[in-house]
Amino acid sequence: SGDPTFQELLARVRGADLAAFENQDLPFERLMEILDPPRSRARHPLFQVMVSFDATSGVSFDVPGLHAAEYAVRGRESAKFDLNFELREQYDDGRPAGITGVVEYATDLFDRGTAEALAARLVRVVEQLVSDPGLRANQVEVLTAGERELLLTGWNPGARAVPDATLPALFEARVRQHPDAVAVTCGGDSLTYAELNARANRLARTLVERGAGPERFVGVMLPPSTAMIVAVLAVVKAGAAYLPINPALPRQRIDLMLDDVEPVLVITEDVVADGSAADLTDDERISPLRQGNPAYLIFTSGTTGRPKGVVVPHRNVVSLMRGTEDLYGFGTGDVWAMVHSLAFDFSVWELWGPLLHGGRLVVVPADVTRSPADLADLLAAERVTVLNQTPSAFYELIRTGRRDLPLRWIVFGGEALSFERVQEWYATRPDSAARLVNMYGITETTVHTTVLELDADVVSGARSAIGRAIAGLAVY
């Protein structure tokens, strides 16, 4: 802490080590009994990286007719730790002559190139520190110039202009372009772009009358349906941000979200509102709607602690769509399936993707999403061209054996993708026109951050990979 100089850091390490050595007689078995760490056959229970230093190596002597010297014996069949750095001091006629080192690594975690890079960086750091012990920790350069260039520019596409527009403004532009095209379907219910826009406008005015507006939140607690899409559009048209609430969640989880967010309203049923069907203006809202205002708030899963709400502005969603449009070429002929819950941020991509590109959104009923066979039937019947899947759901879809799906794109997200499992798709469907894409991201970075288009060669050469940043973002 405190960004010390190397000299200060050495003093700290020396003090910590000397204090620790006072306890070196403590039996290891007793230490384990006291600490009681989680046990695993895959790793050492207390540490995974070891550094050993031998200051006595290199000792040799001669007697009449015999030269004796010490040699390190290598060739253990398996590594004891993830990484083991063995350092030995060398001598020349009793004088120090440098230090040699060996890096031992677990091959199920590291390959040779990675281990060599670690060793090279260690040498680079040490060379800088011994030449100038007054360097502070943050002044030490770990990367080569080539590595830094690769990280900053080689792996990143650079900035991209984002239209200064909000989600309702972009949607309304699509409505004007093709008002009679079907915008959303669910079961036997369908709405054209004009019909969806009109219903959302009427409801938005009702929401404004009841206090909805920019920087305020409105809960949407509806099952998958066309009414749910109307409600979401109405909330953002009113200027508010939608808080998706899955009605199937335990009451305690719902109460947690409501207490945390304190929405001004919660929509729990299909509301048919009267009034004008014209697009809302800023004069009608409680304050002007800007790109920096929140568009939605989604709670994380809570798998690593208490769920937390992530607020995402309109700008982020617009940037996501702008940064991927050249990759996919989505258009008015595409049919998207909305498979995931509105409370899962994958739904942001599924919902706004078709509506902002002029495509058709097929809302998949909850009972269909639970059956891979029923989902496959729906995809075929609705002629879905864009399918978004978590890898685990995709593996189940493969097992249905369906080969007549008219898919143009299959986009993965939400979980780590096993390339080994994807190989089955290519092996059993060599003539499929679907293009598979692995995308990675988290709720805080607005659904997707990186993209990698797959093919049979890509998935045969790696365990998994997440690709490079989409336009407008950077990854390191």
Keywords:
alpha/beta; 15 helices; 476 residues; 20% strand; three-stranded mixed sheet; nine-stranded mixed sheet
Indicate the mean pLDDT.
92
Strand order in the sheet with the most strands: 7-6-14-13-15-16-17-18-19
Which percent bin holds the helix content? Answer: 25-40%
What's the total count of β strands?
Answer: 19
The CA-CA distance between the termini, in Å, is: 24 Å
- Main sheet summary: 9 strands, mixed
The whole-angstrom Rg is: 30 Å
Class inferred from helices and paired strands: alpha/beta
Uncertain runs with pLDDT below 50, 5 residues or more? none
Report the sheet-strand fraction: 15-25%
Q: Helical region count?
A: 15
Specify the overall morphology: elongated
Explain the overall architecture.
The radius of gyration is 30 Å and the shape is elongated. By secondary structure, the chain is of the alpha/beta class. Strand 15, helix 13 and strand 16 (409-412) form a beta-alpha-beta unit. A nine-stranded mixed β-sheet has the order 7-6-14-13-15-16-17-18-19. It has a three-stranded mixed β-sheet with strand order 1-4-5. Helices cover 36% and strands 20% of the residues. Helix 6 (193-209) packs across helix 7 (226-238). The mean pLDDT is 92.
